[in-house]
Each structure stands twice: as C-alpha cells, then as structure tokens.
Write a structure and sequence with these properties.
Blueprint (H helix, E strand, L loop, with lengths): L8 H12 L5 H8 L3 H13 L19 E9 L4 H13 L3 E6 L6 E7 L2 H12 L5 E8 L13
Antiparallel strand pairs: 1-3, 1-4, 2-3
Helix pairs in contact: 1-2, 2-3
C-alpha cells in the first residue's frame, strides 16, 4: 500500500469480506471484521487509494443472459512486434464476446475466454473476428462442458 502502510489483519478481513459481498454497509462490514464503522471507512478508502480494492461490480449469470457457452481460445500471432500486439490488443478490447484475455508465455501468445450464445455464434465470431485479424496466424478452441469452479476472490 502507499508509503510504509502495510496490509494488516483487519485490512485482510475487510478485503476478504468485500470480495464476498461488496454491497455490505460500513456498519455491517465493521461488525464482520471487528472494527468500528469509522475505522472501516478510513481503511476502505486507503485500500482503494492504494489500488488494493478496485471497481465495484455485480456478477451476472451468463446463462440467464443468453450466453451459456464458454470457449477458451488459444491464439498464435503472425508477428511478435509491438505494433502487432498493440493492434491485436485493441481488437480484443473492442469485442464484448471476449470477457478475459491473457498474454501468455510458451507455445501460444494469448488465451481468450469467450462468452457466446451457441457453437454457431462462436464459429461466426472466430472466423469473422479472430482468424480474420491480420495479426493472427492461427487459433485453437476448447469448449467448456461445465463450470467446475469460478471465483473472483483472490486469496488474502
């Protein structure tokens, strides 16, 4: 965190609780972590300022929103230049179907998690989007059969 301030046990409890339920009031959070509401408010603000805590979101159910198919797609680039990567990463940012993207080490350059309606939707997306991109040499797709574990919680 900023300066010499370290994350102590109360900060860790705050982070843990907010990862589970970001809608907690400061009073409810204070009760859960064993601190005063004023202290919790100051600590949350300090954790935000330090970048430990970032945006507040609500998790949506992909199936309820008509996007039940998860595809993991490995991408290999044609060129490893900074310009090619910058252009491809701008493309990634522009596509709502791509919900996660990681630059990778090893055989593949990127790993994408893509959320689509069905196999035909994915086929259209990968053929007209990913594989049509000038920086992409090839891609390999893996369809998730079911989700065994999913969490947004980082161990604290």
């Amino acid at each position: 965190m900023e300066g010499d301030r370290h994350i102590d046990a109360v900060d860790r409890r705050i982070v843990r609780e907010l990862q589970r339920d970001a809608s907690l009031s400061h009073a409810a959070l204070a009760e859960k972590v064993g601190a005063s509401a004023a202290s919790v408010w100051r600590r949350v603000r300090a954790l935000e300022k330090a970048g430990v805590l970032r945006g507040i979101v609500r998790l949506a159910d992909p199936e309820a929103l008509g996007r039940p198919v998860n595809v993991l797609c490995h991408v290999r680039m044609t060129h490893q230049t900074t310009d090619a990567r910058t252009e491809f990463e701008a493309f990634i940012q522009s596509r709502e179907e791509i919900v996660e993207c990681y630059a990778m080490s090893g055989e593949w350059d990127y790993l994408l998690r893509i959320s689509v309606r069905d196999v035909a939707d994915y086929d259209r997306f990968v053929m007209r989007g990913v594989l049509a991109h000038p920086s992409v040499a090839n891609a390999a797709s893996h369809f998730a059969l079911r989700q065994v574990k999913y969490t947004t919680e980082i161990p604290v």
